[in-house]
Amino acid sequence: MKKEKKAINLKDVVSDGLSGLSEIVANDVPDDVIKSRTEFYKERFMHHGYDDREPYNLRVISEYCAELYSGTSRSQKGLCLMGLTGRGKTLAFSIMKKLFRLRVYQAADLVELWQVHGVKNRYEIYELLKGNYSDRGQPAIDVLWRDRCIDDIGTEPILNEFGTKQEVIDTIIQKCCNEFRDCGARTHMAVNLTPKMFIERYGVRAESRLHQMCHVVTLRGNDRRRD
Question: Which domain holds residue 104?
Fold first, then answer.
């Protein structure tokens, strides 16, 4: 008789409780602990409807979540998921929103806000996006819950302001990169473009900033919505 596999519980795999999250510092977590936490997040993603037709996609996202929870040096950078429509980017971040309380913003909505606020009040958009990373005394899990995610990058319109075309998201990426460099503010992104298409639209500098502040992963597979 085949023994039934016991469901993974996070309490079973976190042997050190929340001690690893007490400070915002890089820490060494044993490989076997990361592996166990990765399996836990795989189960959570599948529970919330993320299928495993492309094991690579599920594995890399779950591994990042395990690193994120553990507060390792690798998790100090955000996660950027790239790929054409239907690869599971938005679903992945919607699940991470439930697990980690991400603040998710649509790229098109940010462009609209940019236009509505006008030149003098643009700082309000940055305040909206900003997380309070300056208080290093806060538990890391509290800071983690202040992460922001920008979804559907590449689908937003180009702003035509006073006859001048402007890529708002390019400007916001630059601002987010500066905050990452200055105080470690973490940004996650879902990009509805291939790497080549991203460079064609936003340029090499924006692509360089993307790699500076995020682990960039190109998701594999076909459009899941057509299956």
Answer: 77-221
